[in-house]
Amino acid sequence: MIKDSLTRHWLSALLIFLLCPVAFAQENFLDYVSEMDDTPPSSLWMEYQSNEDDSTDFYMDLGLYLNPSNTLKIGVGESQLHDAGQSIDTDNYDIQLVHHISRNIDIGIGYSYWGNKDELWTETLDLLFVVHGDDISIRLQPRFSTLNIYTVPITGQRRLVESNSDGWGVSLSYYAIKNWTFNLAATDYNYEVDLTKLNTLLARIIFSNATLLLSDNFLEKSTSFEIIRQFKNFDLGLVIGQSVSAIDHSDIDNYAINLEWYIHPDYSLFMETGETIPESGDPGTYVTAGFSALF
């Protein structure tokens, strides 16, 4: 049932992805290609994050220019989570194909995996719709996921519990003011199963501590606001965000400052430090270091 539902999402998304360009006249696309002075570069992004509780994250993203109308994005990463003496490793990877309909419109389709195959993991289908303007950019990203959770072997055999979820993400970037950029983003998620059931005494009997630790990553919604000031060779940013846990509906506040230093027209270094303040837990700090390259 769940696999059939995800298959229907894939087929519908693929149909949309293939048919959207047909709605635009061929000559408009040819004009767009002929106007391109330079070949869009491919890109590489790497980041490493260390948290106060000794949790770590590593992620690498590769954007490959295929032709004037298509870009392929591939990402891989791994994390090690720590909490109250509990430790668990997770993997994540994603792939996305972005189609440039015109200079101002992009659409895309992607797949992502996150989690630990022995405990809990998710698989997600993402759609992407982006409109670029002279002063503003808007991004809409519907998503459809399957959640997979193993129970502990109460009767000698572990049972796999599956459910569906859907949601969306939307972001807006405003850059009409010289040397300033303002970013606003929001997400919202709907779950087929009430995830607050994972915050009960019964859940502690049915599921392992590692599984419950991973489930803390499930969000109900989130919002964030970022201000970026551009200077000659670097950018300074301030981020304020809040998310709501899908497990206990508690708020999680986040504050961060970041710096991106352009050491070369094709290379930059990124640093961010911030604090996460959960309503139902202790605050924690983190540091992120990143590297970006165009080629």
Describe this structure in words.
- It is built from four helices and 14 strands.
- With 295 residues, the protein is mainly beta.
- Strand 12 (251-264) and strand 13 (267-278) form a beta hairpin.
- The longest helix is centred in the first third of the chain and has 18 residues, at 2-19.
- The termini are far apart.
- Residues 21-37 have low confidence and may be disordered.
- H/E topology pattern: HHEEEEEEEEEHHEEEEE
User: Roughly what percent helix?
Assistant: 10-25%
Structural class by SSE content:
mainly beta
Annotation field: number of helices: 4
Runs with pLDDT <50, length 5+? Answer: 21-37
Using only C-alpha atoms, the radius of gyration works out to: 21 Å
Keywords:
295 residues; mainly beta; 14-stranded antiparallel beta barrel; 14 strands
